[in-house]
Amino acid sequence: MPLGTLDRSPPPFFKQGPSALSKLMFFSALALFLMVADTRFQITEPLRSAVATALYPAQWLAMRPVLWGRAIGAHFESLQAAQSSEEEARRKLAFQAQRADQVEQLTLENKQLRELLTLRERLSATAQAAEVLYDAADPFTRKVIISKGLGAGVVAGSPVIDESGVIGQVTRVHPLVSEVTLIVDRDHAIPVLNVRTGARSVAFGDPTSAGGSLELRFMAANADVAEGDLLATSGVDGVYPAGLHVATVDKVERRADSAFARIHCIPKARVDGARHVMVLQPLTASIAARPEPGPEVAPAKKGGRK
């Protein structure tokens, strides 16, 4: 067979098509054309919307774990923030309550001090202010410890009052503090005068009422004493100045089988809650001493010579 009759073209199976460079240029030009056309004419917008709609369920399912994780994290963050806010609010509320209590206490103390100063101006006896520190350790007595002692000139027997009336009497003095026996102590007695009738008597601490009241003892059953009568110091004992309020008659019990009446009285002073008191000088310090007796003069004999 002559050589010119042979077919030199490759068989269809081995045909390569366009070259790779041609394909690159073609598809690059096509991509550039589509980008320009999409920018100017929005020709791919329907296709894009269709694809987004078709992929939305898959996207929704894929986002659920992320959203749930964010929600759980936000819940715990808000819970922690709420707990912190509540704790801070409670702390501020406790602080404000403490401030309110302090304001009320300071207001009460200010009122008491003003009344004590007013009372001090009315008193003729020497007086000095003191503070009640604490109750005495003995549970069977009604005594308190005040902040003035020998160094401040306090002496045993000094009357102690507040703005409402008599608190008690100094019974023991130390260098820096003093012990005051309250008028409601069962062993304490104070001479009083009924302001309405002028009758004198003695008020004792009432042992039957846990030391919270006074009792007028040895008063006749027919004595002129009524509920509401004001009892004041009589001044006959040489200790308490006259006219200081002591108590108010609360109840009068008259029994046919007893010659004496049981008279219960409520103290005018705050024996359980006094904070600031006034210590007075006893009347015995201002009373002139009894003059010394002079030499005895022999009596003249009767019938003697002139």
SSE map:
Elements: H1 20-41, H2 45-122, E1 127-135, E2 143-146, E3 159-161, E4 166-173, E5 178-182, E6 189-194, E7 200-205, E8 214-220, E9 230-233, E10 245-253, E11 260-267, E12 276-280
Antiparallel strand pairs: 1-2, 1-12, 2-5, 3-4, 3-12, 4-5, 6-7, 6-9, 7-8, 8-11, 9-10, 10-11
CATH architecture call of the largest domain: Beta Barrel
Q: What is the helix tally?
A: 2
CATH class of the largest domain: Mainly Beta
Q: What class, by secondary structure content? A: alpha+beta
**N-to-C span:** 217 Å
Output the CATH topology of the largest domain.
Thrombin, subunit H
Q: Report the sheet-strand fraction.
A: 15-25%
Strand order of the largest sheet: 1-2-5-4-3-12
CATH superfamily of the largest domain: Rod shape-determining protein MreC, domain 2
How many domains, as an integer?
A: 2
Quaternary state reads single chain
| Estimated helix fraction | 25-40%
Structural shape: rod-shaped
Q: Radius of gyration, Cα only, in angstroms?
A: 52 Å
- Major β-sheet profile: 6 strands, antiparallel, barrel
Q: Could you list the spans in which at least 5 consecutive residues all have pLDDT below 50? A: none
Overall residue-averaged pLDDT value: 80
